[in-house]
Amino acid sequence: MTFVLGLTGGIASGKSTVSQYFKEKGVPVIDADDVSRQVVEPGTVGLERVVAGFGADVLQPDGRLNRKKLGSIVFNDKEKLNQLNRLLHREIRKKILAEIDHYKEKHTPFIVADIPLLFETDYEDYMSQIMTVFVPPAVQIERLMSRDQLTKSEAEHRMDTQLPLYIKTQLSDIVIDNSGTIEDTHRQIDRWLKEMTQKGFI
C-alpha cells in the first residue's frame, strides 16, 4: 500500500521548501510544475495546444515555449489563465496519475505529490492525506513581491488566481506554518513523519 501525501500551498508560501526537504529525506516527489514543463516540450501535444490557443508568438526562435512571455499574458488575465489550464489540464493529469500508479506498482511505501492547484483541479480523491504549507497573506504578498520583483497590486493579482490559503488549510489533514524559520518548518515536518511512522501509515 502506497501512502500518497498531497502537498499544496499558495504562490510564495514556501511549498518548494517543504518539497525539497522531503526529497532530502529520500522521499520520491512527483512535481506538478516539472510535469507542466514536460508536457509543453517541442513535439508534444501540449505545446501544439498552447500554440493553437495563444499563437506562435509564445514560441522562442528555437521552437521552445517562451514561458516568460506566456506568463505575462496569463497572469494579467484570469480568463486566459483558465484557458491555459484547460488546454494542458488533461495532459498534466494523465502524467501525474501515471507516475502515482508507477510508484504503487513498485509498492513504494510513501510518496509526495507536489501539486500547487491540488484542490482547484480535483486531485483530493487520489491522496491518502493532504498537507498545506501556510503563511499569512501579508507574508505571502511580501515574499512574492521580493521574489518576483512585483508591485503589491501585481502580487495580489497573482494570488487571486488561486484558492485562498485559509480555505486550503480548512480542507487539509495537516498544515505546515512556514512563516517562521526554515528550521521551524523542518521540525513540523519531522513531527508529522514521526507520528505517521509510529502509526504505521508510512
From TrEMBL:
The lineage of its organism: Bacteria, Bacillati, Bacillota, Bacilli, Lactobacillales. Pathway: Cofactor biosynthesis; coenzyme A biosynthesis; CoA from (R)-pantothenate: step 5/5. The gene is coaE. InterPro entries: Depp_CoAkinase (IPR001977), P-loop_NTPase (IPR027417). It catalyses: 3'-dephospho-CoA + ATP = ADP + CoA + H(+). One of its GO terms (biological process) is coenzyme A biosynthetic process. GO terms for cellular component: cytoplasm. Keywords: ATP-binding, Coenzyme A biosynthesis, Cytoplasm, Kinase, Nucleotide-binding, Transferase. Its EC number is 2.7.1.24. It is an enzyme of class 2 (transferase). It holds the Pfam family CoaE. It comes from Vagococcus acidifermentans. GO terms for molecular function: ATP binding; dephospho-CoA kinase activity. PANTHER family: BIFUNCTIONAL COENZYME A SYNTHASE-RELATED, DEPHOSPHO-COA KINASE-RELATED. CDD domains: DPCK. This is Dephospho-CoA kinase. It comes from the Bacteria. Belongs to the CoaE family. NCBIfam families: dephospho-CoA kinase (TIGR00152). It is found in: Cytoplasm.
